[in-house]
Design brief:
GO terms for molecular function: alpha-L-rhamnosidase activity. By secondary structure, this protein is of the alpha+beta class. The chain has five domains: 17-117, Immunoglobulin-like; 123-315, Galactose-binding domain-like (Jelly Rolls, Sandwich), CATH 2.60.120.260; 323-431, Galactose-binding domain-like (Jelly Rolls, Sandwich), CATH 2.60.120.260; 438-789, Glycosyltransferase, CATH 1.50.10; 798-875, Maltose phosphorylase, domain 3 (Sandwich), CATH 2.60.420.10. Helix content is 21%, strand content 29%. It has 14 helices and 39 strands. Strands 18, 19, 23, 24, 25, 26, 27 and 28 form an eight-stranded mixed beta sheet that branches. A six-stranded antiparallel beta sheet has the order 12-11-14-9-17-20. Strands 3, 4, 5, 6 and 7 form a five-stranded antiparallel beta sheet that branches. Helix 6 (560-579) packs antiparallel against helix 7 (613-634) and helix 9 (667-675) runs antiparallel to helix 10. The longest helix has 26 residues, at 638-663. The structure holds beta-D-glucopyranose.
């Protein structure tokens, strides 16, 4: 027994601070849709070896924290996804929260408080109704973009103002002539009939006492514009409408609410058409001057008509689309006077230009990813997407920028009519504005270029939803593509809330029998020639996005509540596939997309891959069953954990029984056998040998399609064949990753040989399915982070980390860093002579272990690494 001391005071950890308080809402908006926000934070400080043992969260009505509700002391080492300890927020309610943690030393100080404000949480909060311009209803082709406006008076100085706004279609809303945000293509694309996102803006600074004007243009967007290669229109509705509710508190204590209703006026302006695929047409002569300002005469405009309140109104909780970069392109003049634009890299976005000329003068901008043999735009591969912006000038100098569209391009051609000069051109790169968290670098610049291409392809395709490509008449949320790419995506940009939103739609649109549509949001794809697709478009590898994407999010960010929310979807998909198994336990009975686009598949029939698609399908059933079992274990559902582990075991056995021989004859066959636990333990070494032998026999060229590619390098390095893994990575012959780089790729290609070894582009043979911006093969970057640099999470959210660099081939150094929920983890290694030096830094709250490369060095693993910097020097 110890004698109590009068000196005793609670021990404190003054060196560690609790920072970066955040909820699961990444929208950047002033309010949150989450009535009980999940809470996360980070720890900072220089003291090495910091561990969190417990935390306490307080929630209060104001920053004095008097009368705060406390979580009490909660034992936990995790810094993410903690429950809200107080009662749920009501609509518009503001609360403050703060947190302190007990580390291995003692309690920290309280963090700085963070503010949360609830958005409109209930349909009953909306007095606004969607409004539209009556004459715009039922328009069947791209046509003039409807404009809506309303003026109102504020009798006193506004002290606080919130604008809740969304649309059927995509909107740009302004207050007194100023845009309410730089957000583009709002409200993005969701399963509109079930879930329509709105945004909440603080517009206090845009209002003034006296007369004010609210205004919006509403483009067709995904709601009403062209979708799919059938160029269907009006997929969700035939009327563009705005829903807005402005709530103002005045200095004198009064309030003013302005909502969309039949007091709004509607008309048209210079935007004659705007379509996501086709581009936009603007006639500046028809621009109604000052229509966004108070005082505009809208007497000849129509009185707006009112629609019922849409279902599923929820505030967006993920980052919006914005201009994320501006590029000054290279310009040249072609013999016919056309201005050729080269952005230097393949991007998603629009061209902004300044032109000067007479009224009626025109400027036309067309876009393409690549040039043909004559140096002109190769537009055939855009298929039905016109990707053309047209302007008619009103006389004088004008800044020209398209609205409500985006293009996938590196090249553009600008044609101006006589007398019109183009004075300035820039490329505005558009993307979902996700936070960049991952970096990779190594001593081989070709690999660095490959990595940069992966990053560009993610950025260019994380636009509203994770798309296959940004340029042709698709730009759809193809499930198989993100299935392949999710782990890379999650390490490169903070993709949690973006993919969480998409998964919510996947869950909504999953069929009652558990089948997952090929694209989410689910739009009718009609015939998919030449394949006869199964189950209204469900296929293995694509539907498995339902299990793979939530798993990737959980592994990267550690939010157990997210896994819990998508669990029913995961299970329904696995049950669906289990229900398709034949008596012999394999999924053999249906057409499949299979190892799509494997380089040996006939160009016009990408599903006819070398690896038997029934084997691939069965392997994916086993894979998803295992991921589901793991999720069930995490969520404490032990019955499910057992049941699906058993499904995995049975299905793996069945696959091996039927295809054990075949699997060993292809790279994808071996990779799936190893990575999905198909090969029995006793056979794993031999399968690894077979895979390595296949790679050698193919001179290091890759032979996998969409479904095999993510797994082939991990399968090689995981079975001790790092040398062959590097051969595949570094091979420059067609097909291969660096082949693309050496052919000048700046984004990942859809086909390994999009440009053939002789430099030509085979558009005909490929049936014009030839995109230069498809991220699926970019799945390679997960291996760059995890194996080349050697930075891996060994528990969800990187609470425990493995540093396991795998130097190989001629690489002399590599480094990676990832801004994890705990803070930034970094690893850098270099080889000099026979000495390997590894520098690693772990953030507070994490622990790590170091696994030395096999074979090269005889060093032992080092366990128990704490936060802080570490250097390990190994001599061979
Ligand atoms: C898309 C894909 C997709 C595939 C499946 C293509 O047209 O661009 O990336 O996964 O179809 O059929």
């Amino acid at each position: 027994m110890t004698t109590p001391s009068f000196e005793a005071s609670p021990t404190t950890d003054t060196a560690t601070k609790v920072t970066a308080l955040r909820t699961a809402d990444d929208s950047g908006l002033v309010a949150t849709p989450l009535p009980e926000p999940r809470l996360s934070w980070s720890l900072t400080g220089d003291r090495p070896g910091v561990l969190q043992h417990a935390y306490e969260v307080q929630v209060a009505a104001d920053r004095s924290f008097t009368g705060a509700v406390s979580s009490g002391e909660v034992e936990s080492g995790a810094v993410t996804d903690h429950p809200w300890p107080a009662g749920p927020l009501g609509s518009r309610e503001v609360r403050h929260w703060r947190v302190r943690v007990r580390t291995d030393v003692g309690w920290t100080q309280w963090s700085q408080p963070a503010r949360v404000e609830a958005a409109l949480l209930d349909a009953g909060d909306w007095t606004a109704r969607p409004v539209h311009v009556p004459s715009d209803r039922g328009r069947t082709s791209p046509g003039p973009v409807p404009l809506l406006r309303r003026e109102f008076d504020l009798p006193a100085e506004p002290v606080s103002a919130r604008l809740y706004v969304t649309s059927l279609g995509v909107h740009r809303t302004g207050v007194n002539g100023r845009p309410v945000s730089g957000e583009l293509l709002e409200p993005g694309w969701t399963s509109y009939p079930n879930r329509l996102l709105y945004a909440t803006y603080d517009v206090t600074g845009l209002l003034s006492p006296g007369r004010n004007a609210l205004s919006a243009a509403v483009g067709d967007g995904w709601y009403r514009g062209h979708l799919t290669w059938h160029k269907n229109r009006d997929v969700y509705g035939d009327t563009s409408a705005l829903l807005a509710q402005l709530e103002v508190t005045l200095a004198d204590g009064g309030t003013v609410t302005v909502v969309t209703d039949d007091r709004w006026r509607g008309g048209y302006g210079g935007l004659l058409a705007a379509d996501l695929y086709d581009g936009c047409a603007r006639d500046l002569r028809q621009e109604p001057h000052g229509w966004r300002l108070p005082g505009f005469d809208d007497r000849d405009w129509e009185r707006a008509a009112v629609l019922p309140l849409p279902a599923g109104l929820t505030q967006r909780a993920h980052p919006p689309v914005r201009v994320v970069q501006v590029i000054r392109p290279e310009l040249s003049t072609l013999p016919d006077g056309t201005i050729a634009v080269d952005a230097g890299e393949n991007v998603t976005g629009v061209l902004r230009l300044r032109a000067d000329g007479p009224a009626g003068g025109t400027v036309t901008v067309r876009h393409a990813e690549v040039l043909d043999d004559d140096g002109r735009l190769l537009t055939g591969i855009l298929r039905g997407a016109r990707a053309t912006d047209e302007y008619t000038l009103s006389g004088g100098t004008a800044e020209l920028e398209p609205e409500f569209t985006f293009h996938g391009f590196r090249h553009a051609e600008i044609d101006a009519s006589p007398g019109v000069t183009v004075e300035h051109v820039e490329v505005a790169v558009m993307a979902g504005d996700l936070r960049r968290i991952g970096e990779f670098h190594c001593s081989d610049d070709r690999v660095n270029a490959l990595y940069a291409n992966v990053v560009r392809s993610q950025r260019g395709n994380f636009l509203a939803v994770p798309t296959d490509c940004p340029q042709r008449d698709e730009r759809l949320g193809w499930t198989g593509d993100i299935m392949a790419f999710a782990p890379t995506a999650c390490a490169t940009f903070d993709s949690r809330s973006f993919l969480d939103s998409w998964l919510t739609d996947l869950g909504i649109e999953q069929r009652p029998d558990g089948a997952v549509p090929l694209v989410i949001p689910d739009v009718d794809l009609g015939e998919l020639p030449p394949m006869d697709l199964p189950f209204a478009g469900t296929t293995a590898g694509w539907g498995d996005a339902a299990t793979v994407v939530p798993t990737a999010l959980f592994d990267a960010y550690g939010h157990r509540s997210l896994l819990g929310r998508h669990y029913a979807t995961m299970r329904a998909w696995v049950d669906f596939t289990a229900g398709r198994l034949d008596d012999d336990g394999t999924w053999s009975g249906n057409a499949q997309l299979g190892d799509w686009l494997d380089p040996a598949a006939p160009p016009e029939d990408p599903a006819r891959a070398t690896t038997d698609s029934a084997y691939v399908a069965t392997a994916f059933v086993a894979h998803s069953a295992r991921l589901l079992a793991d999720a069930a274990r995490e969520l404490g559902r032990s019955d499910d954990a057992e049941r699906y582990a058993e499904l995995h075991r049975r299905t793996a056995e069945a696959a091996w029984r039927k295809w054990g021989g075949h699997a060993r004859t292809t790279q994808t066959g071996c990779a799936l056998a190893l990575e999905f636990g198909i090969a029995p333990a006793a056979e794993r070494a031999a399968v690894g040998e077979s895979l390595a032998a296949l790679v050698r026999a193919n001179d290091g060229r890759i032979a996998t399609g969409f479904l095999g590619t993510p797994f082939v390098l991990p399968a090689l390095s995981g079975s001790g064949h790092t040398a062959e893994a590097y051969r595949l990575l570094l091979n420059t012959e067609c097909p291969g990753w660096l082949y693309q780089v050496e052919r000048g790729a700046t984004t990942m290609w859809e086909r390994w040989d999009a440009i053939r070894p002789d430099g030509t582009i085979d558009t005909e043979k490929a049936g014009t399915m030839l995109s230069f911006n498809h991220y699926a093969y970019g799945a390679v970057a997960a291996w760059l982070y995890g194996s080349v640099a050697g930075l891996r999470a060994t528990s969800p959210g990187y609470r425990t980390i493995e540093i396991a660099p795998r130097p190989g081939s001629a690489l002399t150094s590599a480094s990676a860093s990832i801004a994890t929920p705990y803070g930034t983890v970094s690893v850098a290694w270099s080889v000099r002579g026979d000495t390997l030096t590894v520098d690693a830094e772990l953030p507070p709250g994490t622990t790590g272990r170091f696994l030395p490369p096999e074979g090269l060095h005889s060093a032992q693993p080092v366990t128990g690494l704490g936060s802080g910097r570490h250097r390990l020097v190994l001599r061979g």
